[in-house]
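hey
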């Protein structure tokens, strides 16, 4: 763990009694009530508590919900009040909560990504225990789970030879104050427009311990985080240490416009440690890299924009540049440009129905570099995107059914070339001959699906059922497939809570 940031986090926790704020847990990305919040944001009923960044805190969601509830301007007041009841925290400064849940999972493919299904089908039990403690400005969350689906998932980085497998869905400590907050632990994160995996960070893979520092508020916020990636071995069987760093500076320029600049990097080397230049939360990774001190490392820089350009219609844009060739463009050994972007828009469709449309693309060599240990992956799985050399066009609608359930129809066209994050970076003349997009035969997937999510009483439900028509399946010319792709997860649970007195 980077010692300067750890020291700052400890100092924040020690000084907690002198701050006025109170810690609030984050709403996890797998909470079946989160899609309802996203639906209200898409409708324009509530303001986005954290544009282009997930998760956000329960208190931030409650403030946004309470604002529209008190004004009486929302299109779905029943859902607003249901979510207020679900996420409102008691005002006690020292409290605890225990929430056990048990149920099952059924799936046609064990991978969680529905657009790129993989792995066997199955029906498996599931159980978890949510533990939360809030002590003034400090919060602790632990959610261990028994999930026997994991060995079937090709993206699971853990052991696959066990009959009973578990993981930590969440495990973090957070210290929160008016202008500064610190976080250490693991939870799923997402940076980018909703509806598709973010380029710099996403929940495609499984969480890893991360140390994060935030300074500022929604008007101007700096986020810096660092994490250690899985060690790998080189051709000499030497252990290669790998690290991931990310910075993001965002600003709410107007009530309708939020912009952000971000950068991420992967560093690697035999016996390498956290480099002081990169773990500095206010440094520019690009200038600590080849454009500054001449160090190695793979740097990805990006720009985010979220703009409500009509009364209730919002545009979201994310652009990432891995490497733009400006010398000897078109040369025989010059690789193509490496980039990724997403363009998204959302708004109300009809009364309580919302829509969301997006187009995203990642170039053929995006997220890769000539050093195989500096690819944007952890244990072979993408830190942000897990697929390059592809594009995707999607349309979603969201419609509430009573105040508890949300139905989401989806239409998607996905095109996938033969480029893969696992492939070696081309050398020599092969670099210049690599197309910017779509290597070899292109697989096309037409997807029509419908999902349902929500919670009522002790029941939590998340389900999706889709039909895929695939041409050039597996990047084999002329091969077609038609198949059902579905999953369902349902749990029953209860919670008990209490207050700690002085």
């Amino acid at each position: 763990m980077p010692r300067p940031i750890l020291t700052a986090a400890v100092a924040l926790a020690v000084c907690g009694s002198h701050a006025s704020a109170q810690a609030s847990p984050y709403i996890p990305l797998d909470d079946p009530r989160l899609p309802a919040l996203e639906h209200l944001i898409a409708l324009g009923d509530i303001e986005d508590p954290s544009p282009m960044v997930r998760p956000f805190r329960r208190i931030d969601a409650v403030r946004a919900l309470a604002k529209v509830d008190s004004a009486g301007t929302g299109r779905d007041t029943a859902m607003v009040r249901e979510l207020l009841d679900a996420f409102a925290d008691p005002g006690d400064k020292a409290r605890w909560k225990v929430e056990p849940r048990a149920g099952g999972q059924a799936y046609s493919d064990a991978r969680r990504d529905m657009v790129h299904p993989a792995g066997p089908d199955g029906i498996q039990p599931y159980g978890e225990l949510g533990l939360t403690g809030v002590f003034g400005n400090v919060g602790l969350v632990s959610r261990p789970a028994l999930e026997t689906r994991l060995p079937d998932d090709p993206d699971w980085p853990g052991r696959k030879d066990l009959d009973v497998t578990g993981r930590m869905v969440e495990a973090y400590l957070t210290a929160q104050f008016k202008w500064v907050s610190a976080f250490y632990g693991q939870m799923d994160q997402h940076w980018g427009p909703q509806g598709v995996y973010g380029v710099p960070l996403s929940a495609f893979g499984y969480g890893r311990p991360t140390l994060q520092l935030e300074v500022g508020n929604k008007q101007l916020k700096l986020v810096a985080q660092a994490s250690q990636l899985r060690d790998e071995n080189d051709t000499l069987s030497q252990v290669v240490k790998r690290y991931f760093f990310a910075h993001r500076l965002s600003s709410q320029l107007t009530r309708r416009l939020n912009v952000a600049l971000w950068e991420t990097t992967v560093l690697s080397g035999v016996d390498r440690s956290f480099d002081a230049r990169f773990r500095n939360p206010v440094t520019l990774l690009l200038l600590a890299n080849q454009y500054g001190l001449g160090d190695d490392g793979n740097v990805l820089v990006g720009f985010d924009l979220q703009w409500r350009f009509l009364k209730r219609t919002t545009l979201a844009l994310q652009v990432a540049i891995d490497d733009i060739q400006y010398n000897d463009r078109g040369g025989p050994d010059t690789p193509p440009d490496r980039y990724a972007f997403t363009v998204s828009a959302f708004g109300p469709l009809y009364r309580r129905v919302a829509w969301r449309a997006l187009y995203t693309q990642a170039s053929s060599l995006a997220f890769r570099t000539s050093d195989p240990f500096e690819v944007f992956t952890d244990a072979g799985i993408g830190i942000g995107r897990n697929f390059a050399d592809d594009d995707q066009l999607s349309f979603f609608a969201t419609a509430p059914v009573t105040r508890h359930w949300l139905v989401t129809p989806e239409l998607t066209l996905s095109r996938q070339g033969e480029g893969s994050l696992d492939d070696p970076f081309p050398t020599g003349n092969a670099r210049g001959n690599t197309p910017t997009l779509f290597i070899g035969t292109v697989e096309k997937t037409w997807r029509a699906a419908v999902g349902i999510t929500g919670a009522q009483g002790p029941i939590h439900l998340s389900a999706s059922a889709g039909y895929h028509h695939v041409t050039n399946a597996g990047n084999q010319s002329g091969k077609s497939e038609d198949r059902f792709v579905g999953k369902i997860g349902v749990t029953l649970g209860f919670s008990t809570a209490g207050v700690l007195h002085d």
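Helices lie at 3-14, 34-43, 58-71, 77-87, 276-279, 285-288, 429-432. The chain has one domain: 3-97+127-347+357-385+427-434.
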